[in-house]
Write a structure and sequence with these properties.
The complex is a heterodimer of chains A (156) and B (516).
Chain A: H1 8-18, H2 25-36, H3 41-51, H4 55-64, E1 76-81, H5 84-87, H6 91-102, E2 109-110, E3 113-118, E4 130-132, E5 135-137, H7 142-155
Parallel strand pairs in A: 1-3
Antiparallel strand pairs in A: 1-4, 2-3, 4-5
Helix pairs in contact in A: 1-2, 1-3, 3-4, 6-7
Chain B: E1 4-7, H1 12-16, H2 19-33, E2 37-40, E3 54-58, E4 61-65, H3 73-78, E5 90-93, H4 98-101, H5 119-124, H6 129-137, H7 139-149, H8 161-170, E6 177-182, H9 191-198, H10 200-214, E7 218-223, H11 228-243, E8 259-264, H12 274-281, E9 305-309, H13 310-314, H14 316-322, H15 324-328, E10 331-332, E11 335-336, E12 338-345, E13 351-356, H16 361-368, E14 378-383, E15 390-391, H17 402-407, E16 416-421, H18 426-440, H19 446-463, H20 468-485, H21 489-493, H22 495-504, H23 508-511
Parallel strand pairs in B: 1-2, 6-7, 6-9, 7-8, 12-16
Antiparallel strand pairs in B: 1-3, 3-4, 4-5, 10-11, 12-13, 14-15, 14-16
The chains are: A alpha+beta (156), B alpha/beta (516).
């Protein structure tokens, strides 16, 4: 895994989309994270320059929010809800199953799939819930989990 | 040959269990059979347990089919689904389903009924009527109506909405803001999402009314990032409203300017706290502010700001249309009107139930929810999200009323009701409350930042049988410190679920299987 940077022009384009104003920092970072999966050290420097903030300011915001990763994730991201409504429907057992099935711990990556915890997807009447690459799935059994993840593996 | 209208919800819960696939399959099957159909992607009625809930319009009546899968579609067509034919999935006319009709739908009445992104449909269902009435009646009349309604903040704190609006209206400033809190982070809650996905134009109208009433020309919606479909729908609705002149300068010739920016959160629970949300809207870390100053005086960018939850705002158009008194006639004591209760977790019929305050948790769980999904007995019910107490079965007859809940050391919060059956290990739930606080604490105040981590450790020692009585006392003391010395509800209310476990389920510390 070598390419440890995000294209500078792509970052500038995002800044221009939202406006180079400090109050847009969270929105800009969210767009960077959504489109590129992570926020690189180079991007932090660049955003500090373009928004006239200190690097510490930008780094502080990046490290504060769960959505911002400072390392590239796998090609696919599987989030498993860990909150109470899903716990009541067996999310702890589902999480153990997912860890075994993917060969990754929470926050870990294996075979290009990153497994992450999430605290509520707002799908609490169809628990347990997971999110795969930004799409929420409900009423997830171990079998259904394997089906959904199996599709990812086929797709590569 | 006539065209048959078919409704398939485009709403997160429905889509999460296959609604998109069902819609695709219906279109494909209709093509194959040569039937002409018009597919409408409506919002959800909120009966999540019936999703995907498909409706077919037959002679002007919508016939519902529940739990439809893509694999059922060919069979449904064969059974005469387009004329409301009999099938195992058939539930009957949507307006005869007891779960839905036995509700007090004041705020959610358009959800499920309308096509969320059709301005025409919205207008046909009273859309923007309340805003027009506000323009005609004037700001003071609106403020009076909201005060008379007794509406209180539905985000959890329960502060009287009219008083907040009046305060902002009376605060002199060149610029004021409406900040809509759509950072619905409590587990067991999805009412904001359901409303924004099912009635996004109604949400926009509500914010414009608030802006008009207090003299704010700019609104922000702070939407959590975990709701990507909501994001798509709301963005589109904002464009539609703007294109039709319902947002922007001089709205429909009223002389009133108002526009809305949609901001997306970044996965921080504490950003649902109003001052942390304001910080995040300003592009910063979501760290809680000291109060005072209140946001009504110095809020976003230091300007007077109305911070209201989605459901609070969305309750207003009908208050404008029908009068504050009508609203205040529902509910009990100081809990006026309705709340969108959300039945979640281990429950057979989970979903949204909008009811007047005063109904008991037991009635909601038994009569609407149909008991647990597992069929096992209920052991505990967490009301009000991760900061809400776990109720024992003896407490389920408590009427849902802000003050009645406070009296038993609990809270209603945003109306989430999460049911657990008798297999739950309550020591583990108490530990999770502390662990969640440790993960989500903004770190500004010590009781929350450090107390939560210490709380996890103390509970671990209790579960391990290490000086259980001494550690019990220590945990009680820690809860007192967190409650009284934390800056906001994060640290201040994490003790609620923990104390409720100590009080009602203490025996679980001895039998707990372990951690996390």
């Amino acid at each position: 895994m070598e390419p440890q940077s995000i294209d500078k022009e792509a970052i500038t384009a995002i800044v221009n989309e939202f406006g180079a104003r400090p109050e847009m920092l969270v929105q800009i970072l969210q767009a960077v994270a959504t489109r590129h999966g992570w926020v690189s050290e180079g991007s932090i420097r660049q955003l500090a320059d373009e928004l006239n903030l200190s690097r510490a300011d930008v780094h502080g915001v990046v490290s504060y929010y769960h959505d911002f990763r400072i390392e590239p994730p796998g090609r696919h991201i599987v989030k498993i809800c860990q909150a109470e409504a899903c716990q009541a429907m067996g999310s702890r057992e589902l999480t153990s199953h997912a860890q075994a099935a993917l060969g990754a711990d929470l926050h870990g990556t294996h075979a290009d799939v990153t497994l992450e915890p999430v605290y509520c997807l707002g799908n609490c009447a169809c628990a347990p819930a997971i999110m795969i690459d930004g799409k929420t799935h409900g009423r997830i059994s171990a079998g259904r989990f394997d089906e959904l993840v199996g599709v990812l593996k086929e797709a590569g | 040959m006539s065209v048959t209208r078919i409704y398939v919800p485009r709403e997160t819960a429905a889509v999460s269990v296959g609604a998109d696939e069902v819609a695709v399959e219906i279109a494909r099957e209709a093509k194959r059979s040569g039937d002409r159909v018009e597919l409408i992607r409506n919002g959800s009625w909120g009966a999540s347990w019936l999703e995907p809930l498909v409706e077919v319009e037959v002679d002007g009546r919508r016939i519902a089919y529940g739990g439809v899968t893509a694999a059922d579609v060919a069979d449904l067509f064969a059974a005469g689904f387009l004329v409301g034919g009999a099938h195992d999935r058939r539930l009957g006319p949507i307006d005869e389903i007891p779960y839905l009709i036995n509700q007090d739908r004041w705020t959610f009445w358009r959800c499920g009924l309308v096509e969320p992104l059709s301005l025409e449909d919205f207008r046909q269902h009273q859309g923007f009527k309340a805003l027009e009435k506000a323009f005609a009646d004037g700001a003071d009349t609106i403020l009076d109506a909201v005060i008379a309604s007794g509406l209180r903040g539905r985000g959890g704190a329960g502060f009287p909405t009219g008083i907040k609006w009046r305060t902002v209206a009376e605060t002199e400033a060149q610029q004021k803001y409406i900040a809509c809190n759509a950072d619905e982070g409590d587990s067991g809650t999805f009412s904001d999402r359901l409303l924004m996905e099912g009635d996004p134009l109604g949400m926009i109208e509500s914010m414009a009314i608030a802006g008009f009433a207090v003299g704010a020309s700019k609104g922000y919606i702070y939407l959590r990032s975990e709701y990507p479909l909501t994001h798509t729908i709301l963005s589109r609705a904002l464009d539609i409203a703007r294109d039709a002149g319902w947002l922007g300068d001089d709205i429909r010739g009223s002389g009133f300017d108002f526009d809305i920016d949609l901001h997306i959160g970044a996965g921080s629970y504490v950003c649902g706290e109003e001052t942390a949300m304001l910080e995040s809207l300003e592009g910063k870390k979501g760290i809680v502010r000291y109060k005072p100053p209140l946001p009504a005086h110095e809020g976003l960018f230091g300007k007077p700001t109305v911070v209201n939850n989605v459901v609070t705002l969305a309750s207003v158009p009908n208050i404008v249309n029908l009068g504050g008194e009508r609203y205040s006639q529902m509910g009990i004591d100081r809990s006026k009107g309705t709340l969108a209760f959300q039945l979640a977790g281990n429950i057979k019929r989970g979903g949204l139930v909008e009811k007047a305050f005063g109904i008991t948790v037991r009635d909601l769980i038994d009569e609407y929810g149909g008991g647990t999904a597992s069929g096992r007995p209920v052991k505990a019910v967490q009301v009000g999200g991760p900061l809400g107490a776990y109720l024992s079965t003896e407490q389920l007859d408590t009427p849902l009323d802000y003050e009645a809940f406070t009296a038993i050391g609990a809270m209603i919060g945003h109306g989430g009701i999460v049911v657990f059956d008798d297999t739950v290990d309550m020591a583990q739930q108490a530990r999770f409350a502390m662990e969640f606080c440790a993960i989500e604490s903004c770190g500004k105040c010590t009781p929350c930042r450090i107390g939560s981590t210490r709380g996890v450790e103390v509970i671990d020692r209790m579960v391990a049988g290490d000086n259980r009585e001494e550690n019990y006392d220590l945990l009680v003391e820690l809860c007192d410190t967190m409650e009284h010395a934390s800056l906001c509800a994060m640290g201040g209310m994490t003790p609620y679920p923990v104390r409720s476990v100590l009080k009602h389920f203490a025996e679980d510390f001895a039998t707990s299987g372990g951690n996390g």
